[in-house]
Amino acid sequence: MEIFLKVLLLIFSVGVITVVLLQKGKSAGLAGAISGGAEHLFGKTKARGMDLVLERITIVLGIGFVVMAILTTALTN
């Protein structure tokens, strides 16, 4: 069981890394970070197509990674 959980944790971690690297950058430098945050806050930019899919996959894999990390730690100790 412990090995299975560690393998799942490894799969989630590789998945998160891969999906994050596939995403495009949202801003360029410090100026883009300030204005990009304001645009995102007020909803001027909307993710479409592949960007939206990658964003949702990132969220799911991130949650899965955190859950697997907690389960692995709880069950091995």
Element pattern in H and E: HHH
Per DSSP E runs of 2 or more residues, the count of β-strands stands at 0
Give the structural class.
mainly alpha
Strand content: under 5%
> Would you tell me the overall average pLDDT?
82
Measured between the Cα atoms of the first and last residue, the distance is 13 Å
Radius of gyration: 16 Å
The backbone outline, from C-alpha atoms, is: elongated
Separate helix tally: 3
Largest sheet: none
**Which regions are unreliable across 5 or more consecutive residues at pLDDT < 50?**
none
> Level of helix content?
over 70%
Protein name: Preprotein translocase subunit SecG
Organism: Saccharibacillus sacchari
Quick structural gist:
By secondary structure, the protein is an all-alpha fold. It is built from 3 helices and no strands. It has helices at residues 2-22, 29-42, 50-76.
